[in-house]
Amino acid sequence: SIAVFGPETPKDNTPNETVLRPTTMYGITKVTGELLGNYYFYKYGLDVRGVRFPGIISSETLPGGGTTDYAVEIYYEAIKHKRYTCFVREDTVLPMMYMPDAIKALITLAEADISRLKHHCDFNVGAMSFSAGELAESIRKHIPEFVCEYKPDYRQKIADSWPRSIDDSAAREEWGWKPDYDLEAMTEDMLNKLSKKLK
What we know:
By secondary structure, this protein is an alpha/beta fold. It has helices at 25-44, 70-80, 99-111, 132-140, 155-160, 169-175, 183-197; strands spanning 51-52, 55-57, 83-86, 93-98, 123-124, 128-131, 147-150. It has a single domain, classed as Rossmann fold (3-Layer(aba) Sandwich).
């Protein structure tokens, strides 16, 4: 998870190898998992593999209150009420990924030849980065009357400690990672699926 990163981490094109000083318990446990996985690989030869997901957006899973969940809630509220109050600033940029790409990443990494892997438990994987305002605008292309307000809460501080974009070149080079969805394709698919689901 990108929760492994913290305030000292470079915010743009965050490299795979960088400072890992998260400020949340969630992030601390993610770093611990990476370190344990690498320990078991090098000590016992256990084939442990893992990725650092950005915010995951899904039409199948309800948002649970996490920092990136505004990017799921906004679709539900746009369809149901044509308005949303976002808990991060309009200019807050975070890396995100659509669930079909997340599943693709896990399967592709699991099937990769271990001899090609220089990393094991800590692959950055990216797909897109956008601001809350850009997300609202992508929805407005389909629902012109949609209105989004911005009232940042405690999650803004967490979002500010995370990367705006990540460098996933290790995943691309070592196991051929390549996402299928960008913001526009994801928005179209999310709105289509949720419109049917919420009828």
